[in-house]
Amino acid sequence: MTMIQAQSLNLSFGVGAACNQVLHDVDLTVEDGESFGLVGESGSGKTTVLRCLAGQYRHWSGALSIAGAPLQHKLSKEHFRKVQMVFQDPYGSLHPRHTIDTALREPLTIHGMGERDDRINDILLKVGLNDSFRYRYPHQLSGGQRQRVAIARALILEPRVLLLDEPTSALDVSVQAEILNLLADLRQREKLTYLMVTHDLGVVSHLCDKVAVMQQGRIVERLDSQALSQDLACHDYTRMLVQASRDFSAESPRVASA
Amino acid sequence: MIANLSSTVSSDKAQADRAPASSVDALYKSSLRVLRHLLRNPMTLAGLLVALLLVVVAAFAPWIATHDPVVQNLANALQAPGAAHWFGTDEYGRDIFSRLVYGSRITLYIITLVTVIVGPIGLFIGTVSGYFGGVVDTVFMRITDIFISFPSLVLALAFIAALGPGLEHAVVAIALTSWPPIARLARAETLSLRKADFVVAVELQGASPTRIILRHIVPMCLSSVIIRLTMNMAGIILTAAALGFLGLGAQAPLPEWGAMISTGRRYMLECWWLVAVPGAAIMLVSLAFNLLGDGLRDILDPRSE
Amino acid sequence: MSTLKLTVDSLNVRFVNGKKETHAVRDVSFTLGREKLAIVGESGSGKSTVGRSLLKLHPGSTQITAKALQFGDVDLLSASEKAMQKIRGQRISMIMQDPKYSLNPVVKVGEQIAEAYLAHHKASRSEARERVLLMLEKVHIRDPGRVYNLYPHEVSGGMGQRIMIAMMVITNPEVIIADEPTSALDVSVRQQVLNVLEELVVEQQMGLIFVSHDLNLVRNYCDRVLVMYAGRVVESLAACDLQYAEHPYTRGLLAALPSMDNRRPRLPVLQRDPLWLTC
């Protein structure tokens, strides 16, 4: 079954001469239970795709659908229970004045879900924290712990799709490994579909089955991550990215150009 | 998986021991922290003490005052400060110390009422126009601009001229002139929070705009608004005194500090205490609120954390 | 390796804040010659603090102690603030992480570089301009004349960082400290910037201290690597020997790195040993 589908998605900001088109005819299909990676550099529009799907940008044109239900420009509450997002910066995505308990209770209140205490305890255990964290403030937690809380907040509504916006790029390598393992476990146990945005090819080939490479608002290549690591990429840009991220090598061309 | 992650949890054991057990506990601990910081800075402490003194004096005025503040005794007029009258007497023989003590009630009344009116109005207008932007923002901010473009005392004078002199009208007039800076402040804070990840996160959970503003944006604006309100209190005291001095605020025989200076100024050259004592009180209290506001900024401002 | 530029012996840095004392760097020793030395570690390991304490950029409440902190003929430990000002920028330069924050937004980039040159050299404005144009060419900026007159917000991240490098290298320093110079940049630009930096280091025979969290980058870019953990150097080895690292921390870090070529279902998680904090 197709979980996420985007057909000729276009988005631009501004009007008239200042109009800046950030997405050009993006087509994307992610199957149920799949983990899909969007790779690109800053300004390639990869995060924008995520934010359209999440419902933050609503003036796109084209067709988007989640689990077969087409997205309207005015979103229903149901949509937010199906799709949740984890942000890049664990320091900015939690309200500094809310305890972890408040942060996790908020989505339950919004959607009128019951058994709130049990749900909060359960979800904290699922992301590898315990209830001693419940009444702490974000500034009392480390970056990795905050990111776990952010994942818990996204999962507490029991969504089908998790949108991951560079979830580990602000973390240290050792913490990144923990979070990536957690995400892999959660996907398996909760039967989640992931759409992850990243610039790190190592991370994407670790967590994702399929990869799309974006450049300047367009998808330039789609391939399996298996193919990516076996150097089977065809597009020049993809090959350049692979080359650049595969260890800075002494053999690489020495001549830089402006 | 949980076994796998036990390392994260166990490495946190030491912290877990003093982890707060409930939201009340967490709130208690963070307010304790604020209080501790407040007491560490001597200037802030001084401001806090004077502000508390004002409240205590106002609350226990009948017990603190040595005389009735309004009973006249012309035989006893214009007495210099001494044992019988600590701060002397005025031209009607009323004890200045007692009038000062009762005057603190009026000062406190004005400060409280103005703050209670101005805080919510400013917060509401600022957060709503900052959050929604567009037309809402333009309309609200142009209204704010109109109010801000008048000198506040002149605007207050105009309102009192329309409403007639009196303490309540002075309060309304001061409130009308002091909400725009609060609204602007709240709007600026809201604009920077608008795109913050934690606000986007609740939006993506399907929260309504009312909920986002009330539960997520207002708490973040609150600290800077409280700081601003505390600093404003000094200005409110001065404006209230100025209105009293001009005869437009509290009416005789109410012992309002500004009015006391106003009536005392005729005898100022011979009897300095008529003007100096209420003047010093005004200065001391407004300075105290300024110091307190400064101290609160150091503690509450999220940027300094 | 031939000429010794910098000798650091048992460097300790403590931040004092009221009664709280943070011991950020503990007994760090190393030497720097004409080479590229990497200091690698996770956030909070003290790697940036080492770089900054060499220039004494910390506030006055910071305590820096060492058995030796020798830079050429100067003892940095006892050098006065005035002496340090002569060293900073002229003999030891520093490149920061993000050019957006280290360039003055209201001054043209060319003039900022000229300013750096004039601060340490007696020269006329036009001479300085010539030098700057030459320098911009050296960092592979096409059309230096045009770039000279741009404001920082008009240049891209990669170009900004190359401008920073030009600014830092124009005084011909002996040592450059680069604090995560490429972590704010896209991979495609990162390579260019690193190449430019390397060319200059080789050409002008400078010593480079490269502070980074990226083991993979450092492995191929630098000559020698110091691995820091909780303020200590836990391992010091030649960059090409990194895969033979012995310390469990270094090995753990390398293993925890997701890699395209070695796909594993789970990444090994670093188990921190409290013993690392004592030995």
Automatic annotation (TrEMBL), chain A:
Gene3D superfamilies membership: P-loop containing nucleotide triphosphate hydrolases
ABC transporter domain span: 4-241
SMART domains registered for this protein in UniProt: AAA (SM00382)
PROSITE patterns: ABC_TRANSPORTER_1, ABC_TRANSPORTER_2
Pfam families xrefs: ABC_tran
GO molecular function: ATP binding
UniProt keyword terms in alphabetical order: ATP-binding, Nucleotide-binding, Transport
SUPFAM superfamilies assigned to the protein according to its UniProt record, in alphabetical order: P-loop containing nucleoside triphosphate hydrolases
Stated family: Belongs to the ABC transporter superfamily.
Protein name: ABC transporter ATP-binding protein
From TrEMBL, chain B:
Membrane topology qualifier: Multi-pass membrane protein
Pfam families documented for this protein: BPD_transp_1, OppC_N
Keyword Membrane assigned: yes
SUPFAM superfamilies, per database record: MetI-like
Location(s), subcellular: Cell membrane
Keywords from the named record: Cell membrane, Membrane, Transmembrane, Transmembrane helix, Transport
Transmembrane segments: 43-65, 106-132, 144-163, 229-252, 272-293
Domain of life, source organism: Bacteria
Domain ABC transmembrane type-1 per the UniProt entry, residue ranges: 104-293
Keyword field contains Zinc-finger: no
Family recorded in the similarity comment: Belongs to the binding-protein-dependent transport system permease family.
Protein name: ABC transporter permease
